[in-house]
Amino acid sequence: MNPAEKIPDKTFINSNHFPLPGSDEERAAFMNIQKGFSRQYETIFPDKLAPRTVVILPSLSLDQDILSKIKGAVHYEERMLCLLMLLRMPLTKIIYVTSLPIEDSIIDYYLHLLPAITSHHARKRLTMLSCYDSSVKPLTEKILARPRLIERIKKLITDVDSAHLTCYNITGLEKTLAVHLGIPLFGTDPDKFYEGSKSGGRKTFRIAHVNLPDGYEDLNSKHDIARSLAALKRDHPTMRKAVVKMNDGFSGDGNAIYRYPPVALDDTLEETIMKSLLQQLTPVSKDVSEELFFEKFESMGGIVEEFLDGAVKMSPSVQCVITPSRKIEIVSTHDQLLGGDDGQIFLGAIFPADVGYSVTLAAEGRKVAQVLVDKGALGRFAIDFISIMQPGGEWKHYAIEINLRKGGTTHPFLMLQFLTDGKYNADTGEYITAGGNKRFYFASDNVSSEKYKGLTPDDLLDISMYHDLMYDGAAQEGVMFHMVGALSEFGKLGLVSVGSTPERARAFYDKTIRILDHECCE
Asked: What gap in Å lies between CA 224 and CA 216, rounded to an integer?
């Protein structure tokens, strides 16, 4: 190049000054931005014809060492594609950011489901952006490392007063990104992170006067674990198992089961348990070693609590929304499908929860939600329970954790709600569509088989259409797929099967599995 030639200006120069992450200045800037969200929620959210921009950030900003043990974890970013159904509102724009590009056929599949809107019209209002980064770092961290990408997002937001950021979970990373974009977050301020931890949850349950397992919180070391296990054994001499949980574990992968060996309840009990930890403590995730478990436990803290058992035991959850005006909405109840040797791994869900206890379960959830209102929580969250049938046939609910974020039950319910325009009635335990019909679903994030490896998204859609598996908008029944991007490499995907009865919902699911197995047999 001729030395005399002038180098053109950079295509992007970030001249904005942003406060340091975690600083008081950032906190003040964030609070100022959040003030505008109440007006959005009250005036824009209810109006289907109101112009708005929704920036969707499906970042799983969780412990990456634990998350990396989940097969196809990066494709969990696809679960929030359910929010593309917002494009059914004709003046809504969506900006969806992912670590890796999502196949066009997957996007077309979702847009095909839109009621009363053509996919062409919706596609013009959708912008898909990617970091082109498959590393294990949280998506939000990847975005923050790409100032040009942030600038592209900002240029796509034509009116910051009608835009907001919706995330899978909210940490300091998402708070920093909200300040950089200048738009509010729909969710709890990460400064209140402790309230959604396992330790914080136990304290909230006590304030709410709901049942919880006997146990101890705010633990930080092996010695704390051993001391708590010993105390539980003294209080419950016949106890066979206890659960040890990291404060910020998720989907059960931050849990471990301790099986008590034959021990004497004397002064040596704590020392005996301490010596037995490595032999008797088993992490729920088979890919998490005992050494990694203790390392993570000591860094994030955690709890020890009794392993609840019963002849008839269920694992339901209550999903809630706290609005900016502090109103509590019970939006759904589910029976969770749990797997693993001790039933600790989240696999999927049945909606609604069993009619025998869904109403009383929602009432317990509301008690917890009221305490969280007073603690400043906002947006969607879930409360997990263990429910045990008592000798007289009544159910006793034990609250076990709070997830101040979206979860494994969020995307199936949102898909059903968007497609049927219905509502869950917590007083009856029923979901009623806009047409006055009941609907149920059976959903799983973990439909997995080695035989499915090699199937592309196009293959899956071809199979679905040939075998009449696609969701039928007229009948409001059928199957919807998600996490399709994980199929070819990992042999894994998710699905939601909707039916007019619980039996029909399960039948759609079983039919889908049979057909996939048949199509993939050699």
From this structure: 9
3-state secondary structure 178-218: HHHHCCCECCCCHHHHHHHCHHHHHHHHHHHCCCCCCEEEE
**Token couple for 264:** 């004497």
Collect the ranges in the chain with pLDDT lower than 50: 1, 3, 12-13, 15
Using CA atoms, how far apart are residues 159 and 252, in angstroms rounded to an integer?
Answer: 40
On whether the CB atoms of residues 175 and 154 are closer than 8 A, the answer is no
Sorted by sequence, the CB contacts under 8 Å of residue 432 that are 6+ apart come out as 422, 423, 425, 438, 439
The CA-atom distances, in angstroms, between 352 and each of 181, 277, 334, 379, 416 are 37, 39, 5, 21, 12
Phi and psi, residue 179, nearest 5°: -65, -40
Distance CA 241, CA 42 (A): 48
Q: Report the number of secondary-structure helices (H) and strands (E) in the chain.
A: 17, 20
Q: Would you call the peptide bond into 352 cis, given omega within 30 degrees of 0 as the criterion?
A: yes
- Indicate the helix (H) or strand (E) that contains 451: none
CB 93 within 8 A of CB 50: no
CB 331 within 8 A of CB 317: no
321 within 8 A of 329, measured Cβ to Cβ: yes
Of 469, 467, 478, 482, whose CA–CA distance to 500 is shortest? 478
What ranges make up the beta strands (E) of 140-192?
A: 163-167
Q: What is the pLDDT of residue 252?
A: 66
pLDDT at residue 92 in the model: 98
What's the pLDDT score for residue 13?
45
Domains and CATH numbers, the chain: 24-186 (3.40.50), 214-306 (no CATH)
Q: What is the 3-state secondary structure (H, E, C) of 336-367?
A: EEEECCCCCEEEEEEECCCCCCHHHHHHHHHH
The whole-number pLDDT of residue 68 equals 73
d(CA 314, CA 6): 71
